[in-house]
């Protein structure tokens, strides 16, 4: 979309400010320029600001805007047109096959993945190797952060006589490349995932809110107007239907959890605010940003500085459950126990 058209679309912003307090990055920085309204103002003046890179593209602003103005949509259109640095791109390509592993290695955090988790991983690959009723997207978080969630999820499926298939050829959703503005690398990931997942049938289950958001919102936009747009939308529909399906039989499990008399809080990640059907209206959900879901925020150290803003939500809590690789990592690294940090699916 040409920049002129993007600006025409942004001019519908009346500067009412409804989006400002809702924006997770504004909640972190508390500065107008880090709000959707501030970013739109700058963009309309043809001025780029580093705050643009701190937008999570979560869409909370556009869903709450009376005029349906969307900064993330406009910014993604700009990123699509941006010339990529070919040297950096070649460098990044070396890490493209397993970006989370590289990130963990750089930070010397591979020790966070216990030996037990590594063993679980190899057993589960075998267990989910045949076609089944449900397809599991084997995301980086399942590989490195919470493979034990897959084991528990498998037990629940068994109880309901369901089988799951987990194709291992899928790749990282590409969120790290979106963060860095390398849309061509994101596209490569998207097309590979499409190729593998279109060969499967049935509900598609994702264990990370950011992966879901990339499939549902970002892939269709980066392929807008092409033959792929609708195909990505259909994949995302399979994920949403999968969550609806699970929510039907999750009720019984949730009741059990409530009877355990433990104080449990379900944390709602920014990228799941539109799609939390699985537990909607059934659990005590806290909607707060962990402070650094983007790599750029991580590098700035906001997860530490922002901690005081969210830790007050967790007083006297035994278990904190989330649904996102970034939030899970933040909570694990920054919180003293209790609370125990879990994935939502571990409790269902
Ligand atoms: S983007 Fe929408 S909600 Fe935000 S200030 Fe503009 S008109 Fe208001
Ligand atoms: S997409 Fe999310 S982070 Fe970006 S401006 Fe909108 S509310 Fe803020």
What does this structure look like?
By secondary structure, the protein is of the alpha/beta class. It folds into 3 domains: 3-81, no CATH class; 87-244, no CATH class; 251-347, Rossmann fold, CATH 3.40.50. Helix content is 51%, strand content 6%. The chain has a 4-stranded parallel beta sheet with strand order 5-4-6-7, with helices on one face. Strands 2-1-3 form a 3-stranded parallel beta sheet. Helix 18 links the parallel strand 6 (319-322) and strand 7. The structure holds iron/sulfur cluster (2 copies). The site of one iron/sulfur cluster has 14 residues, from helix 3.
Q: Domains counted in the coordinates: how many? A: 3
Mean pLDDT across all amino acids: 86
How can the largest sheet be summarized? Answer: 4 strands, parallel
Bulk shape: globular
Low-confidence segments: none
What is the CA-CA span between the terminal residues? 43 Å
Integer-rounded radius of gyration = 20 Å
Topology, number of strands: 7
* SSE string: HHHHHHHHEHHEHHEHHEEHHHEHE
Cofactors, ions and other ligands in the entry: iron/sulfur cluster
Adjacency order of strands in the biggest sheet: 5-4-6-7
Taken as a percent bin, the fraction of beta residues is: 5-15%
The number of helical segments is 18
Roughly how much helix do the residues carry, as a percent range?
40-55%
